[in-house]
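## Example pair
The file below holds two records. Each record gives the amino-acid sequence first, followed by its C-alpha cell line.
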Amino acid sequence: DYLGALKLYETIPAKMRTQATYNTMLSLHARNRNYEEAEKLFQTMRSSGRVDSIAVTAIMKSRADARDLEGVTEIFEWAKAQNFNIDLQMYNTLLLAFVKNGEWQGVNDVTEAMALQNIEPDAITYSYLMNGLLNSKKYGECLSVFES
C-alpha cells in the first residue's frame, strides 16, 4: 500500500536510492493524487540529474490528472529540449492532458505530431480519445475514431 511504501522509502538512505526507487515513488505519489509530493520529488530528481523518461511520463501523468495542462506541456517541452526520446507513452500522456481539459485543437496537434514522428497510436491512445469524445458528447467523432 501507499503508506507502507512511503515508510519503506523513508528508511532507505538517500545515497542508496536507485533510479527505480525514485521512479516508483514518483509514480506512487502521482497514482495516489499526492501531487505536491510528486512535484517535490521530481524537482529533487531534476536537481540531482536523476530524471529519465519514466520519471518524465510519471510527472506528466500527475499533472494531467490534476488538469494542469500548462504544467504537462512545460515538462514535455523540457524533455524535448533535454533530448529525451519522446515516445508513445509521453505522447499519450500529453494527449490525455489535452483531452481532460477539452482542448481539441491540442488533441489534433498531438495526433499530427505523432504521425509526423511515425509513432503509431495504441489502445491507450484510442481509449483516451474515445473517452474524451464521449465525455464531451462528441458521439459522431467518437464513432469515427472507433471505426478508424
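Second record, same layout:
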Amino acid sequence: MAKSLLRFLDASPSPFHAAAQCATRLRAAGYQELKESDAWDLNRGGKYFTLRNGSTLLAFAVGNKYEAGNGVCAIGAHTDSPCPKLKPISTQNKCGVKQLAVQPYGGGLWYTWFDRDLGLAGRMLVRDKSGDNAREKKLKHVLVHVDRPILRIPTLAIHLDRDVNSSGFKVDFQKHMPAILAGDDPTGSSGNQDLENGMPKQHWALLECLAKKVGCAPEDIADMELQLCDTVPGALGGLNEEFVFCGRLDNLCMSYLAIESLIDVTKNDEDLAEESTIRFVSLFDHEEVGSCSAQGAGSTVMMDTLRRTAAALGGSQEGAVERCLQNSLLVSADMAHAHHPNYMDRHEPEHAPIINKGVVIKHNANQRYATNSMSALLFREVARENALPIQEFVVRSDMACGSTIGPIIAANSGMLTVDVGIPQLSMHSVREMCGVKDVDTTFEHFRSLYIDFARLMKMVRGQS
C-alpha cells in the first residue's frame, strides 16, 4: 500500500493533479462522473463522483437497500498543501538572473524550501486554435507538471550571515523566496513580453517551457495557477523501510486512503447488494487557508451533493435530507502530530502518538476538532472488532490547537463527526514523514468502517 501511495503522491504535485488522479482511479473502478451543472439520474447500487474547480472531488456509492432518511458514512480530507504559488505577474530580473515572484499559500515551514531542486505544477487555461471563428474558440483546462529542477531558492552563505545558527533563520517571504529560473536569456528568446491575448507579464522562457510541456504555443496560454513543487520523488526510508518520506503527506496520504478504501468496498456488485447506507468520500481544496472558498469545506459543495442525492433517491419525502444527516457520520481525516524524539516536551505526556502505532483520534474541548464521545466510540469500536491499533491525541493545555474540516462540516450539516489522522513528523515541510504500517492499518480501518457503519451507528445511537 505504501508503494502505491508514493506513486500517487509523485503524480499529484498540485490539488488539480490530486483530484485528477482520484478521478482516474474512480473511473477505472466503474464510477460515473456527474457534472454539477447537469441533472442527476441516480440509482440504488450506482457509483458516482463529481468535481468542482478540478481541485475538489466528491464520490459516493449507493447501497441497493438504501431508503430515504438512511445515513451516509463519509470520509473527508483535503487535496491542498502549503507551498509557494506564482504571483499573477511573476517576472523579476536581478543580479543577472531571471526569477519568479511567489506568494505564500498556507502556513508552510518555508525554510525547508531553500536549496531544493524545484519544479512547477498546476492548471493552465489554453486557447484552442481549432475552428475558423475566433469568437467560437474555446479554452482548454490543461494540467502541467514540470518535474525537472528548473527553479531554486538559494540560501545566503554563512560567511555573509555569521549569526544564522545562533539567531535563527527568519524567512522574509517577500524578500527571500523569489526563485531563480534562469540566467540571462539562455534560450536566445526575446525576454519579457506582454502577449496579445492579455496574459500578464511572465518570463517568455517560462511560457516556452510550459507550452512545450503541454504541446501548445506560448501565445496560446491564456492564464495559469501554478505552484512550486519538489522534484525529488517520494521514497521508503529508515533502515527497514518502515517510513514514508515525501512531500504533501498532509493531506494527500489521507485523501489517497479515503479513495482507495471506498473503491475497495464497492468493487463488486455484491458489495452494495445488502447495503442500506451511502458510502461517501469528500476531498476539498483550500483547507490550508481556512476552507472559505467555492470549493472548500466551508462551501456548499458537500451539502449540495448530499441534498441532490437524497432528493434523487428519496423523492419528496418530508425531511429526507435532515433525517439522512442525523443518521450519518463524517470521518474528518487529516494527518496528526507524532511524538517528536527531539522535542518530547511539545506533547501532552499521555496523548503522544507514535509513528507506526496506529491511526489517531483527535480531541479538543474547544471544538478545534469535532470529535465527541459517540463518534470516538464508534471509530474505536471498528479498531477493537478488527484488532487494529488506535491512539489518542489532545494538545497541551498551554499550546494552541490547529483545526480541520471536521468542525466546519459538522457545524454546517449537523453530522456526527470524528477527527482522525495518521501520525507524522515534519508537518508542513517540503518533505514530510509517516509510517508504512500506519498506511496499511488505516486503510483496513477505513474499509472496515464502511462495511460495519450501519450496525455500529445503531449501537452508538442506543438503537436495537
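Notes on the second record: Residues 264 and 447 are 7 Å apart (CA to CA). DSSP finds twelve helices and 20 strands in the chain.
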